[in-house]
Amino acid sequence: MAAISDLDSAPSALGANPRQTPLVSLSLLIVAFFLGRFNQSSLYPLQEAMAAAKGLTDNDVALLQGPAFILPFVILSVPLGMAVDRTVRVPLLIAALLMGAIGSGATAYADSLATMFLGRALVGLSTSAVTVTVFSMISDIFPAEQRGRAKSAADVAGQVGGSAAFLFGGLVLAASDKGALGWRSALLLMTTPLVIGAAILLALREPVRAERPVVGPSTGQMLAELRTYLPLILPLIMGAVLIEIPIVGAFIWGAPILTRSFSLGAGEVGGIMSAVLLLSGLAGPILCGLLSDACHRTGGPRRAIGAVALLIFVSVPGCLFVAAPSAAIAAIILGLFMTCLSGALSMIVTAFTIVTPGQLRGLCLSLLSASAAVGGVALAPLLISWLSATFGGPAMIGKALACICFPSSLLACASLLLGMRALSRIGAYPPGQENGT
């Protein structure tokens, strides 16, 4: 806790506004990140009940949780990134939360798969906009050597938000005996915190951008400068894409796997997944945030990326949690697996914010998020459900998840090693980033 509290003494990008310290700004950004991930996860504990009530197949659910969720952000990632780099970000953050509430409400009221697709699309765009905006603002508030801890605080909030969604959704669903009304009521109730959070964010102050912006950059100028960084950032983007696959796969299909493999009820599964996500979401980002800052202080981004590759490699056997002899052991293995992966992804994003220049950071973060979302959120659920059908049906979903996640994790390690090689050719930091800012 002291590690996070120490951030309040960091050199502040908010020096022009002494009424709001870095810690206060970070606290408000944490609220936004919590709500974004809470809304993203709100449908996960309800998807079995939703599928039964609406007559949806696993592929239909995967479509809603994957392509529907991420397609708008992929299409709009470049405009969103440029907006984050060029405009005032606080209104963007507030609008993103309200958009998420509208999307979840539309999903709950939907009477067709197409309408549900539209609702989930709004939720996906909202979540991605919150992520990019929060990380951009954190990068302007804190210097590189403290950015890992600051970002880990937001990551913890996001994991707690996902865990809270599983717990709340499972409890509401277990308490309801009204079939379709149960999942709809739960989803509608879970939109309320977003509206409250949007009002709270009116207190957030826009941070001064920590690096000298390019005056009036055109789209062509920004893209031209981006090309000079591609040899460095592409391996990091690919590593994030590949590690997002097992994270999202376990996140989306973890509850159905526990339900089908161990014959657990909705309340039991909701409690297990809530505990797994909460503990892994706390331990992973906090421990890896400290590790990230230590690596950046002693060896720069290259050492941090090497630590990420090792962490992912060690976590690979966790893909086999479905083979555990009991639900308790499966939950423990899944928790360790998610702890390693959530921490690893947090370290990748932290390194990314350090090696990219400030005037391109929002654009680069948007491209990173969009690319990871295509591989993880859009493709992973569908690949796993399709492979499960090939293996023999819904009961094979755990085997399918293991077959997808195992090679993906190994390839992520290889991609990060390529990123280390690129960094070794240009030094600890890219040109213009000597001090890590």
TrEMBL record:
<feature type="transmembrane region" description="Helical">
    <location>
        <begin position="362"/>
        <end position="384"/>
    </location>
</feature>
<keyword id="KW-1133">Transmembrane helix</keyword>
<feature type="transmembrane region" description="Helical">
    <location>
        <begin position="396"/>
        <end position="418"/>
    </location>
</feature>
<feature type="transmembrane region" description="Helical">
    <location>
        <begin position="304"/>
        <end position="323"/>
    </location>
</feature>
<dbReference type="GO" id="GO:0022857">
    <property type="term" value="F:transmembrane transporter activity"/>
</dbReference>
<feature type="transmembrane region" description="Helical">
    <location>
        <begin position="329"/>
        <end position="355"/>
    </location>
</feature>
<feature type="transmembrane region" description="Helical">
    <location>
        <begin position="62"/>
        <end position="83"/>
    </location>
</feature>
<keyword id="KW-0812">Transmembrane</keyword>
<protein>
    <submittedName>
        <fullName>MFS transporter</fullName>
    </submittedName>
</protein>
<feature type="transmembrane region" description="Helical">
    <location>
        <begin position="21"/>
        <end position="38"/>
    </location>
</feature>
<feature type="transmembrane region" description="Helical">
    <location>
        <begin position="272"/>
        <end position="292"/>
    </location>
</feature>
<feature type="domain" description="Major facilitator superfamily (MFS) profile">
    <location>
        <begin position="25"/>
        <end position="427"/>
    </location>
</feature>
<feature type="transmembrane region" description="Helical">
    <location>
        <begin position="90"/>
        <end position="110"/>
    </location>
</feature>
<dbReference type="Pfam" id="PF07690">
    <property type="entry name" value="MFS_1"/>
</dbReference>
<dbReference type="InterPro" id="IPR036259">
    <property type="entry name" value="MFS_trans_sf"/>
</dbReference>
<feature type="transmembrane region" description="Helical">
    <location>
        <begin position="156"/>
        <end position="175"/>
    </location>
</feature>
<feature type="transmembrane region" description="Helical">
    <location>
        <begin position="229"/>
        <end position="252"/>
    </location>
</feature>
<keyword id="KW-0472">Membrane</keyword>
<dbReference type="GO" id="GO:0016020">
    <property type="term" value="C:membrane"/>
</dbReference>
<dbReference type="InterPro" id="IPR020846">
    <property type="entry name" value="MFS_dom"/>
</dbReference>
<dbReference type="InterPro" id="IPR011701">
    <property type="entry name" value="MFS"/>
</dbReference>
<keyword id="KW-0813">Transport</keyword>
<feature type="transmembrane region" description="Helical">
    <location>
        <begin position="122"/>
        <end position="144"/>
    </location>
</feature>
<feature type="transmembrane region" description="Helical">
    <location>
        <begin position="181"/>
        <end position="204"/>
    </location>
</feature>
<dbReference type="InterPro" id="IPR044770">
    <property type="entry name" value="MFS_spinster-like"/>
</dbReference>
